[in-house]
Batch of 4 targets.
Target 1
Amino acid sequence: MVRPPKTTDTTGLTFFFLDEADTVEALCARIIPGDSEDPGAREAGVLRYIDRALSGAYSRWQGAYREGVRTLNLYTRQRYGKKFFELSEEEQDTIIAAMERDEIPGFGDSSSEAFFTMIWAHTVEGMFSDPVYGGNRDALGWRMVGFPGAQYGYSAEEMRYGADLSAKEIVTLAGVRQLAREKPELFYHRPGPEPAAPEEETPGVPQPPREPGEPMGPGQ
Amino acid sequence: MPNKHADVLIVGLGASGAILARELTEAGFTVLGIDKGPYYHSDDFWLKFDELRYSVRAGLSPTMDTDPITWRPNARTGAQICPWAVGPLPLNPLWLPPSVGVGGGSIHWACWSWRQLREDFRQRTEWVSRYGEDALPEGSHIVDWPITYDDLEPHYERVEYEIGVSGRAGNVGGEIREGGNPFEAPRKRPYRFPPLRPSAANKPFVEATRKLGYHPFPAPAAILSEVWRERKACTYCGFCRDYGCHVGAKSNTLDTMIPPALATGNLELLTNCRVQRVNVDAEGLARSVSYVDAKGELREASGDLVILSAYSLENTRLMLVSGLNKNGMVGKRFTIHNYGWFSGTLPEETHVYAGPAVAGWAIDDTNADFIDRSELGFLGGTPIMFFGGDYQPIEIANNLPPDIPRWGQGFKDWLKHVNRHFFAMFSQMATLPMETNFVDLDPKVKDKWGQPALRITHDWGENDRKAGLWLNRIKHDIAREMGATKTWEAPLLPPYHITTHEMGTHIMGTDPGESVVDPFCRSHEVPNLFLVGGGVFPTYNGYNPTETIQAIAFWTAEHIKRETENGGVLTRFTTNRERLIG
């Protein structure tokens, strides 16, 4: 069955350009597929996670994404006359299988398999990391797998083999932050003295070396 | 700013360095403690429930960006920066050196806290008497330790009572106690705290191992099962291995050793400071260390005694960079663990995200030579430990069985299933100390400060392969008995060659030609220099090393206190003993 390409939610993106956002999201959505009934990577906003990661912690992989997407779309345009995200899901799956077998040329020092593996790893991260990182929208990823999230702790009954925790309310880091503000007594406070602050030298312009015996300048 | 000076310089305030800091400051020494990482405040870990930050991105660990290490399988091959620790895939903190900062690896650790077996201190004697001299593989250097279990017994007890370990004793004064580890060496006192509450799927593990004739017991855990002073009891949140603790239940040296050391007024901490070398004077004594401070400036600090406790690999790197390797033994006898991961699914929901991993039980029947190795063709042993908690969804997705598709509907269906039914077991076979496994300085790769990287030359061998095959058979038997619906194994010979359990490389011994430090961790070459940590282990065994490392730190501290008084062997290095003794 051929479906029309879905619309990419580009709210808040700071890194990906137009085709890049559509292409990366299409790849994520084939890795963990979904729809409104049973959400997957697209519905959970994994694209926004990857975009935000590339804008910060993962900036070293910016080039790999940019070049990888360009190479992939070049290949699909030559082969199908369309960009990757414009293909049907069945066609996309055929391409992904070829990437996994490392059969798509043009990835230079890298490989189509390495490119796919990188997107795979980041899709999983965006699906299951705390929503504060931009993915896992409304904790959809955690709901999917039955993970209750950033829980302060579990009771003995909850840790019984076979216990049913499906009704347990999911907690995110935002919830822990609130708990810590409201009830800091639930958390650990190390007793005793704090270490001394490091001795500060005069901040600002580095001083030139002095001759022995030369008086110190102002601010020393 | 003038150079700093103290009676004792301690480089690295982790699992062992912080113990020495407390013991020596309380004895009246001034101590300058220098650590590569930060000082964490307790509220730094209140928001630690974050798999991405602390596990996937290894938020507490040193990484190859700042602390490059290279690896090659053998001396004929070119080394590269550890390939399992670079690239866009998750950084598994178990495949990096331990966390840095005050408290060191004792912050992020999973808290398995074992005493070694008597047998672990005398592998050569055990194996030669059981299997004959010919059983020791060619190119191996299997020796007895120069210290015994009895030497360390009181110091093990100090770790368990002063830092805090939960567990069930199996042998108190020679009397075997029901429900503990019947194989452990006799202890004078039971554990300080009762065992933790085990994870959900521990029940079928215990039933299965009992049925198979093994002797399951709660693994000893350096986590509080009860409130102790300001520290709270474990809440079983399940963010434990790779994480700090939000309630102070994990027993680290940052919470247990540093506060009393600071309270003496004798400890000064220099954090975010990277020691670059040990400076030795014309008399052959360590007089100072050079370090780059938090602002990037090169500085020097001097002390009467210098203690390196910055992890086996970093201690060794510092020795080599400082040109201190007269007998050629620095870097030799490198041993590590093969974790032998074994995963599966069970019929019931396992809630594998809840509870610390260490709360799982273990069997020690597979350790040492409790099952005879004559027909098995390998040496060494390990407990098999149940890993039924502390496992979050990103790690589960990355632990994919070979027959499951890694994308598409099949992958999604698998994720839904496995997260609800997952369990794991692991073992820790130690490599034998082989001539071909060692560390030295990389001739090319340098860190950002221009200092040479350490180079690991290591490969797994026939002993590791045969042991892994045997252990997998036992794990399969247990899983079958547990009713597992599916199982899969990590490769017999892992792709990684760092495990946070690097031992040896500056081993202890009585022969100055065959070891780096004496039985009290004092350098044979530089008599006022000590090297503490797992680097002193002459051979390795199946246990997590930290409690032994910490017991040795107490043992070394006691030696330093004793030998700096009343004409002891260290008095010639210390300048202000009058004040201390007076």
Target 2
Amino acid sequence: MALTYTPNDSLGMLCPDFKLPATDGNEYQLSDFSKFDVLCFLFICNHCPYVQAIEHRIINLNKALEGKPIQILAICSNDATEYPEDSFENIKLNWQKKNYNFPYLYDESQTVAKSFGAVCTPDIFVFNKDRKLTYRGRFDDSWKNPQQVTREELRTALFETLENKPISFEPIPSMGCSIKWK
Amino acid sequence: MEIAQTLANWCQTQSIINELLPTVDSTNNRAKSELPSLSAGLKVYIAEEQSHGRGRGTNTWITPGKNKSILSSWVFKLSHPPQAITAPLIGLALYRSVKNCWPQLNWSVKPPNDLLLSEKKVAGILIEAVQQGDVNYLIIGLGFNILSHPEEISLATHLNSEIGLNQALQLKQMEDFYNSFNSNINEMIKKLTQVQITAEHCQELAVATGAKEVSPDGTLTYTDYTKSWKDL
């Protein structure tokens, strides 16, 4: 079987609209973030080891973006019946416990994941000011070990998108547990 | 007989890449941590002991003791994401394998992922799918109590206790099981791109589960209720 990576087949896709409840008690939709030049969506969950390995890196990246017109948003779309760890209540608990510093949205109907074409956790999407997809790829080049990271690919993609530059490298798809569809 | 070693030896005779670990948190987790370097179509991860064996959802798989059970993850690379019929078909593969090797015993499948022997839990499967772009991996975790079972689980058993002294487990029987399981899961893997279960497999699943009927989407009909496989 050929190893064929096609992460960029949806580049240029317009950011799908959404209206979802979040762990902070608010409900968010796309237009709530119109003041930001760059939006970054990460489909994540509680149970997946690929997410657990990078969640602190997401938090640290968001700290580093303070003051920049870049907004990170996380969405959990997993079927909580099959994976109770990923229920709305449990993602609220994890959001509090880990001090997530970005909105964490809950996509119970899974329609938002489907509209983005998300397939796994983490699955990462970056949109520019025109809300066109500029990057879909992995967080960095060593999900297992933060000490071995040599390329912070999402960070680079965020800043290149902010500067309206084309992404300067070939994105490598994010690897993760398949989204648990209902 | 050291169970983990029997599986590792069998893998070697079949030229299947394998990794034998003295202890690991969970063989499925170990497999997940290695996937990017998986170049072959199949790799089997084997443990003598698991510290955090997992079952479906938040369930755990308790190991009865070192080298007393098969603790393994069978990892396949697929051309398409596995469909919802994966769980029933892999369950059927395990059921067929044990029926083939020990036909005199009373086997049944308890959906979604348990194998029962004389109405007691003897094995469990944990199926996980991992994706990276177009590449799909299927991880089939198999825990199978062979020489012992956890005392703290009342409705559990192990194969050797049911098999009878005259037919006490021998290496040849284990090898026959590995051959059969490998053959059956490979047959099912080829069918995982299909959306529906074939009529033949529906009938086999009905026998295995004791359901009146299993429909092509995996819905089980019993005398007094109907339930989807994935909702169980």
Target 3
Amino acid sequence: MERQEIFDGLLEIFRSVRQIDPEKLKNATEETDLVADLNVPSTERINIVIKAEQVFDVQFDDDDVDDLGSKMKDLINLIIETKKIV
Amino acid sequence: MDNLIGVNPSSILVHGPTKLLVDAYLWHDANLGMIASYTPTLFDVNDHFGIFRGVDMVEAFAQAINASCGFFIESKKLNCNLDVLKAEFTPLFLSIGQVNFMGFLEEGEKMICVGQIKQYKFRQMTCDGRIYKVPHSFDLHSYFENYTSEQFLAFDFPEDFLPIAELTNIVGKVIKKEKMLK
């Protein structure tokens, strides 16, 4: 799975998150920060990660999610790394 | 150990004696949730006209449900005892969705926190539940000995259990202590 494909899939997830302003997604890049740029509450981040597991058919490790950064590229990297292990 | 019944809350929660707001675990199912009791002390109502503060009720609920149940689930997942877990992890209160108060508690009045787990994933727990004031002489341990999951999910309690608060989306997390230092 290509990075761009994952990026687009994550954007779809973000569009379904009530707390995210869709306008802010128009210029999103891999450097976009969920907390600083999209104002995603910390509690909602877990729900995004859970949706990512479902959409990309992966299972993340608890410790990896603990260590996860808040930028889109961090989640993309985690998805790629987790898929490699599987 | 299949549940936390009979375990002293002070042996699982990291809170010190003046901040520990759980007296006893009464009913517990690792997948469904917990019922725990607490009786506010003179210290708890000091400088607050003899009333147990609403924020402390929510804190008691989170200690009883999010923290205690979260620690129990992690101890099972990691296959380690509670002392080891307590040394490595700490509970974190993340957010409150909504709380509606319908009553209050004074010093010496007993309450139960009834928390139903809605989601537990990546060490983060979301719960809904209620707090009831219960008659002081009521034998809670005997009553909950044969309490069923169906009763728990239906909030099935005697009529003299008075609803004090209804809570939704109480979120807490069990986090590695090393993460707290960053």
Target 4
Amino acid sequence: MSRPVVVVGASMGGLRVAETLRKSGYLGPLVVVGDEPHAPYNRPPLSKEVLASDVSHDAVAFALAEILDDVEWKTGSAAVAADLEAQTVTLADGTTLDFEALVIATGLRPRRLDFDNKPAKGIHAIRTLDDAIALRNELVPGAKVVIYGAGFIGCEAAATATKLGASVTVVGKGPVPMLRPLGLELATDIQRRQEAHGVRFVMNAQLTGVLGDERVTGVTLDTGESLPCDVLIESLGSLPNTEFLAGNDIDIESGVHVNASLHALRANGEAWPNVFAVGDVARFPIPKFDPSTRRVEHWNIPTEMARKVGKQLALQLSGDADAHAAEHAKAFDPVPSFWSDQFEVSLLAYGLLDQGTEVRLLEGEPGGDCIYGYFDGDDMVGVCGIGMRSKVMAYRNKVGRTA
Amino acid sequence: MLKIHVDMDKCQHYGQCVFDAPEVFALNDDDKLEYKATADDSERENVQRAVDICPMQAISFTE
């Protein structure tokens, strides 16, 4: 039997790669490996619906198309090692898989606090379904919740927990929440709206310790303040799951470095012909916005990368050299898009806002529904609105660098 | 002919579907989703892309 295509990662990116391979005519053996016990499921509801109600895996599971019937799923078994020269991946259960091509879609895991004597109970992160279900059981009315990390996940969790009746304090290192992704104007605006709902922000502060023996009872800050709490949510950003690739000649500094065709790269920049990465774990150039490389943790990225890799790889394995060359030559150059819901605030953005050096109000009024443009010189490199979604969407095709 | 269904209890009006299948999905002036209940077979790939990209997985269709 010929060697399979092995996709490591059974979340949205891995699922969409498998679908696109099949739709593009690859009918050979296909194995999808996942560390979680669950079949692929949808993560956006985790910080909202799953926290707020009794939602199970069934409610968030992705539909599995018939074309995936003969895919071999190895869920609940993380990849722990790989040998790219020998074309093998080793799983936690000791299985070694040979591969014809490897697609890395392992995603991220939450960065966690590293304190000695951290209590075992009451401390949470939000990444997986099991994380969200465990947290849901503790977000009861009257609970005192501290959220450490004032990014999107932290601020969305603050809104959800407040709506559930918890008393919420967000602790963040910067001067305002969500500063890097949104810029000062919009970030300040959203902080005010969160505060109007009763969320307290302690900014320019860092945790110095976690109190409690078996269960968390509070945290101490470098400001000298201490905050009592029943629940501590860590939302400190993420780390790429690349450890299983260690020991290979592959650039995994801050994610798997890929080129415009999404091939993983050796340390010298040379592409691996049969190794690809998609989704949150990939670090890639976006010529239209940021020609250097970065990871982009936005909703549309895994699907768009998976569509390219699935089609390109199916053509590569089909032996149709001309068709493959044509697909291969199309540089991956998406328009990143994200949204966030926090109380009545619905944010929608296109582009890379942090590439802007100047922020201009385009429509509406600060404090109400409004749209900001993020400019680098004459180029609008991002747009973000509060409300006014249909108007924000009209800017999607106007963002990007002109040269 | 495609028959399209959106579970409006799930839909959060994010509008991600609009770019993949603009002939079928749109946000109205109140920023609420509007869609055509039927579409020509030629829209099949676009509608499938909209199904895939929906953050709430609220869209389905039959042929």
